[in-house]
Design brief:
The chain is mostly beta strands and about 130 residues long. About 5% of the residues lie in helices and about 45% in strands.
Length: about 130
């Protein structure tokens, strides 16, 4: 079974947000682009304030979001010195409500039909200045 964690990220409303994670697949190895380049898929869904109605539901290209080696050169990765192998950014319009809570669920289905998720809790801070 893949690693299961929920990471909390706090952002200002109306700002783009980058999400990073180190993902270990069902086989116990770090996921790689080759795990998804056949029939595999990576999709994401965003929900607001614990509702089951999605705000956004879209797919991601494995070559744009999965790294074949762990990355450590991005200063936004502050978890450890080991690094991450998944990174994606979502547009500000997704998180437009201030002082709100969102849930980002990224669903991975490998070419071998292994399925797992990475979940982020996103807390937005309202900006009162314009």
């Amino acid at each position: 079974m893949a690693t299961t964690t929920i990471t909390t990220k706090t952002i200002f409303e109306d700002t783009d947000a980058t999400f990073m994670s180190r993902i270990i697949g069902d086989d116990g190895d770090y996921i790689k682009q080759d795990d998804f380049n056949g029939s595999g898929t990576i999709t994401y869904t965003v929900f607001k304030d614990g509702t089951t109605d999605s705000i956004v539901n879209d797919s991601l290209d494995e070559t744009a979001v999965i790294f074949n080696t762990l990355q450590t050169s991005d200063d936004r990765w502050t978890v450890d010195t080991t690094g991450y192998n998944f990174k994606t950014s979502l547009a500000a319009a997704v998180f437009s409500g201030g002082d709100g809570t969102y849930r980002l669920e990224v669903k991975f289905v490998t070419d071998d039909s292994d399925q797992f998720f990475v979940v982020f809790k996103v807390v937005t801070v309202e900006i009162r200045t314009s």
